[in-house]
Amino acid sequence: MRHPRALAAVVATATATILAAQSLAAPALAAEPALAAPGAPMRNMPEQAPPTLTISTGDRLRVPPEVFAMICTQGPNGTVRMPDGTSQRVMLTASHCVNTVPGNPPIKNEFMAPVGTRYVRLGERVASNYMKPEAMYLQDPMEAIRTADWGIVRLDDNVTATNLSQSRDWNGRSHGEPVRLTTIKDYRTLAPGEVSTDNFGEPICKDGATSGRSCATQIGRTRNGVYSWNLGYQHGDSGGVNFDPRDGSIIGVSSMTLGPLGKTQPADRIIEDAYGVPDGHVNEVFTVTDSAAPHANFTTAGEEADRLDKAVTELNPDFTPPVPREELRKAVGNAQADGARLADKAMRGQFDRAEVEQAVDHHAEQISFWGGAVLGQEVNKLLS
């Protein structure tokens, strides 16, 4: 059970989060809009996009290549001083945002931002760590917790960058003013397997290109993870900046979520691992971009989805989109019929464990998918 004083600290910091973030808000200055912008969307295309996509109903549809784009959020950017005296302008992000996800088409080493109907190049990957598939897909939660999740994109010379963190959610809404990022929060590096609660009760905010900005409370950290409760990561928020709203210091980049538990990949560990920087010296090597340029007019996730839906409809004029509620009814009916069939076989001594397990997995997946689609429709009705 938490100590009452510790609980009071959590409540106090959570209550003060929004006010603190507003106090760090920086007005957008008259400058060239920034394409490298923390909290903005980031995309990556496959080397060879498949011409078709098979959906959950079994229909095969012709689709534009953008359907297979890797959907992530831009992390913090700045300049790294290299050992030979040169410097690199880079963006910090998540490993699974810059590497091919197992089972998906190989991706190009080229990262872009959606602006209007175009995808404008940001730069290319120069470093990342390796994530095992079981960690990337959360099949082994403990492996996911232990594994680092970082990547570095070198920004092209012609790309304007900003230190203002801001995001718009799926529907284009902003939740708070731009926040000026300052330095990287340089924690004491923990030993493998070590757990610390020295950050317990401290506030954390994230900017994500799907869910927008949200704030929560930190509960602990490991060597390659800062953990929070109910920060609300969603698909497409990965790689986005996480910061301390009290001073704009960069905590890390959005990595993964297990229910209400969120994991941030610490930014200091990214610099330490990628460039061999000793603990405590990260800000001597990495300097946050010194520019308060406003964000470019990025395409929101919802606008992009609507455009791609329209393109798919035009490519498949004879296709009738499935109705989620009707598909859910079919999925439940199919599960009941299959259950009765398997029960009858078992009564006749023909029980096959592998067949039963396969059927359970299939029907659970179908019911979960279409149930989620129905729920999503209802939520959108409430929000619209």
TrEMBL record:
PROSITE patterns: TRYPSIN_HIS. Keywords: Signal. It comes from the Bacteria. Residues 1-30 form the signal peptide. The keyword Signal applies. This is V8-like Glu-specific endopeptidase.
